[in-house]
Amino acid sequence: MMVLVVGAGVVGLAIGRELALRGHEVIVAEAAGGIGTGVSSRNSEVIHAGMYYPGGSLRARHCVEGRRRLYAFCESHGVPHAKVGKLIVAATEPEGAKIAAIHAQGVENGVEGLSLLDGAEARRLEPNLTCHAALLSTETGIVDSHALMLALQGDIEAAGGALAFNTPIERLTRTPGGWVARFGDDELAIDAVVNAASFGAQTLARATEGYPEARVPRLVLAKGNYFGCTGRPAFARLIYPAPVEGGLGIHLTLDLAGRMRFGPDVEWIDAPDYEVDPGRGALFYAAIRRYWPGLPDGALVPDYAGIRPKLSGPGEGAADFLIDGPAEHGLAGLVHLFGIESPGLTSSLSLAEDVADRLGA
């Protein structure tokens, strides 16, 4: 079977790899000039454990399974990563109830390595931390996302697949034997197609012949700003506050060199914008000092921003991943993926297997 995967972010590459390893002819088409230029390159590079997501949801299932697979993949492919662990901290007693609920959800989801700590126990692990209570996750880690995507690309090509850059897929039309993808003045006949186009997923779905407009969910853009932090690292683990609407709160992450950065916040926007407003630093100082009062004045510097392709907006509950395959919409050889934001990177290898199975590949 010849399969076209649209989008060369981490999820599209993982899907292309899974299909190529199953013996199919795979082309991954990417509108940009390289892999991972969108959501996949503008995130926290965290390997999530899987305790935040409702039981039975796609996010819970794929995050937990994907995390296990991702660590194994990184080990076997030499992808730089580190299982550094994470503390989710409660600054107040009411927030303590929040993290207790997250612990219970994690246990239900089958997440390993979770334990509730009081403030003194948390401070013994991280002396610079201030909190009422904390949830320790030993399975949370960090990864070099670009090295991960290069490894996925390598597997695709080693299995006979190919990547086509600067190839924006504009329309999908049906044929008796499959699909025709149109891009510019050219077209390509394929047996099946997977839409993993992230921000472009809804646009391509609307340009898919026979796919009902009513099935296309709205796209909500949530910008997340990040600030770097000067000075020596003050923590050995990732530090997360209790979650907030639209995200997991302004948290501290570490890169593989040990550099601290903070973010993302949640800024609802109408159009893509990757500029970090230095004025948002005041919000960051206030949020961070709830768990790290020792953050020095002037230590934060604007770093970068990412945008998440959400399916829910302000005041709404977090939406699950949406995978629409032949069993749901009735069109053979077609899978659309919508709202694949966090924990999409962690979930990528598990999502890939799910998508391949839905195609009957």
Features:
361 residues, alpha+beta, FAD/NAD(P)-binding domain, D-Amino Acid Oxidase, Chain A, domain 2, 2 domains, six-stranded mixed beta sheet, five-stranded antiparallel beta sheet, 29% helix, elongated
Written account of the structure:
- The chain is of the alpha+beta class.
- It is built from 9 helices and 21 strands.
- It has helices at residues 10-21, 58-77, 93-109, 119-125, 145-158, 201-206, 281-288, 326-329, 344-358, and strands at residues 2-6, 25-29, 46-47, 81-82, 86-90, 114-118, 133-137, 141-143, 162-164, 171-175, 178-183, 186-190, 192-195, 220-229, 238-241, 251-254, 260-263, 267-269, 300-310, 322-324, 334-338.
- The strands form 5 sheets. The chain has a 6-stranded mixed sheet.
- The chain is elongated.
- The mean pLDDT is 96.
- This is NAD(P)/FAD-dependent oxidoreductase.
Helix-strand topology string: EHEEHEEHEHEEHEEEEEHEEEEEHEEHEH
Q: What is the CATH architecture term of the largest domain?
A: 3-Layer(bba) Sandwich
What overall form do the CA principal axes indicate?
Answer: elongated
Distance between the termini: 8 Å
Number of beta-strand segments: 21
User: Level of helix content?
Assistant: 25-40%
**Order of strands in the sheet with most strands:** 9-2-1-13-21-20
Helix and strand content put the structural class at alpha+beta
User: What is the radius of gyration?
Assistant: 21 Å
Strand content: 25-35%
CATH homologous superfamily designation of the largest domain: FAD/NAD(P)-binding domain
Q: Which sheet architecture does the biggest sheet show?
A: 6 strands, mixed
**Which fold name is given in CATH as the topology of the largest domain?**
FAD/NAD(P)-binding domain
Number of helices, counting only DSSP H or I runs of 4 residues or more: 9
Unreliable sequence segments: none
Mean pLDDT: 96
CATH class of the largest domain: Alpha Beta
Number of domain modules: 2
